[in-house]
Amino acid sequence: MRENNGGSMGESLMLFAAGAAIGGLLVALNTPKTGPELREDLKSLGRRARAKAEGLGEDAEGAWTKLKGKAAEAGETVKQELGEAGKP
């Protein structure tokens, strides 16, 4: 079984998206089509890859905001507990 070496879910998603884009490009280049058809397919592939990347960026931003909120809550809890521990 594979061990988690500290890589994040975002890194995994980005690698997956990059692999999918490369795979799509290879399929597009190996399919017999005319020049205009191939260019349109590549443009479409680029638009889809950009949309996916933007979605991943939004997901990462949301996760970061959530993480910051949880860290702030944890910091407040620790601060309160330390304050209570210092009281006689």
Structural class by sheet pairing and helices:
mainly alpha
Q: How many individual β-strands?
A: 0
Shape: rod-shaped
What integer value in Å does the Rg equal? 23 Å
In which range does the helix fraction lie? over 70%
- The overall pLDDT, averaged over residues, is 79
Q: What is the number of domains?
A: 1
Seen as an oligomer or otherwise, the chain set is single chain
In whole angstroms, the N-to-C terminal distance is: 51 Å
Number of helices: 2
How many strands, what sense, and barrel or not for the largest sheet?
Answer: none
Q: Please write the string of helix (H) and strand (E) elements.
A: HH
Low-confidence stretches: none
What is the strand content?
Answer: under 5%
